[in-house]
Design brief:
mainly beta; Lipocalin; four-stranded antiparallel β-sheet; single chain; 36 strands; globular
């Protein structure tokens, strides 16, 4: 059944405004598209299903599972972190809500507020929290290797490379930690606009540099060694009469292919930039805050109104647009062979033809909804739902 959504669900991601300042009785209401009707061209079966705490519930914690070391790792917002083998058997569980540092934020209710997602590296699992913690867990046992306080909330998952963990905080600190000890190596302060999206772009590390989408509508390139800014490029220019209109966050993780960088901004553009020369290759007008995906010679984008697009990487020319999921609060795209996968807020997972955008199949997984892109492996699709279900689907 179709539902009415005010000004898009993106309002729930805004930082620094109260509900009464966002909405009033005269505000336009957009209508969620009904579930598209079509005949499934194939059916995907469920391999296994397990529970990861209570999930993220109604929060926008970007807790995507990660597959590494022949295991699946997943977390719940309140603090549970789980490891499963590839058949869904539990390997270990730890509850980070019991950390003493949570008390100053959560009162009498222990809550780790895990939000930054999970990153696997060096036989460890790294994560960040809204309680300003960065934690490293032993991937084999789940034991805490180290835990450190940083300058603010960590809303995006850490980036790890060259024995360095990089996190971006909600108040504008780009911070590097030693991956083995947690010792802080440097802290670079980045100016923040008065109002920004609640979500933050995960950093990307490549060839001794950090590539970061910023809340001011720019993508910056920083030295991994010391955090010094090398250069930045603008994807969006703030405009409009209200602070909401002027939001231009680069809230999605940039994609780097060879020396070509692709990034998109909310209320801005999808841009291709050559990192060697710093020159802009092409720019197209798209507004998005979800991560983009790439396969073959194409890019795939879910925009702010939940239309899914395919564009040519070399020139930004649009191949197709699938608007049948408009305002269904659609996840970032994931690539499954010749298909593009997206989920929606009512718990449906959709397969779109990669070449045409045509709907190929859909499956209702959980009515609590899907909020992060599926994780695709060589033989399965891993999906995490809002209420904490972790589901493995068979691709064969």
């Amino acid at each position: 059944m179709a539902k009415a959504w005010r000004g898009a669900s993106l309002a729930l991601l805004l930082l620094g405004l109260s509900a009464c300042s966002l909405f009033n009785s005269e505000e336009d209401v957009v209508q969620m598209s009904p579930v598209p009707e079509f005949s499934n061209q194939f059916k995907v079966t469920k391999q296994w299903e397990v529970r990861v705490g209570s999930g993220v519930e109604g929060y926008y914690s970007a807790l995507s599972p990660v597959v590494a070391y022949d295991s699946v790792f997943a977390a719940a917002r309140y603090g549970e972190v789980h490891a499963f083998d590839l058949n869904g058997k539990s390997l270990w569980k730890i509850d980070l809500s019991k950390l003493e540092s949570n008390n100053q934020f959560s009162g009498n209710t222990p809550n780790a507020r895990i939000s930054g997602g999970l990153t696997a590296a060096y036989q460890r699992i790294y994560l960040g929290t809204e309680n300003a913690d960065v934690v490293a867990l032993d991937a084999q046992t789940g034991e805490i290797v180290w835990q450190v306080k940083v300058a603010g909330e960590v809303l995006a998952k850490p980036a790890v490379e060259d024995s360095i963990v990089v996190v971006m905080t909600s108040n504008g600190h780009l911070i590097a930690l030693d991956a083995h000890s947690g010792e802080q190596k440097w802290d670079t302060k980045i100016d923040q606009p008065a109002l920004s999206l609640r979500s933050k772009a995960p950093p990307l590390i490549s060839s001794g540099a950090i590539i970061l989408g910023r809340s001011d509508g720019k993508v910056g390139l920083y030295l991994l060694e010391n955090g010094q800014l090398i250069f930045d490029t603008k994807l969006a220019q703030p405009k409009g009469s209200t602070e909401i209109d002027r939001i231009v966050d680069v809230g999605s993780k940039p994609i780097l292919i060879d020396s070509q960088l692709y990034a998109v901004a909310y209320n801005g553009n999808l841009v291709s930039v050559n990192l060697r020369s710093g020159e802009e290759h092409w720019k197209r007008s798209y507004s998005a805050y979800q991560n983009i995906a790439s396969a073959g010679l194409s890019l795939f984008v879910t925009d702010a109104s939940d239309t899914v697009y395919s564009l040519e990487r070399n020139n930004g020319v649009e191949n197709w647009a699938q608007s049948g999921l408009a305002y269904r609060i659609v996840t970032a795209p994931a690539i499954d062979g010749d298909q593009v996968l997206v989920g929606d807020s009512e718990g449906y997972l959709y397969w779109l033809n990669r070449e045409t955008g045509e709907f190929m199949s859909k499956q209702l997984l959980d009515s609590s909804g899907l909020y992060v892109a599926p994780v695709v492996t060589s033989d399965k699709i891993i999906v995490q739902t809002r209420n904490g279900k972790l589901i493995a689907l068979n691709r064969s």
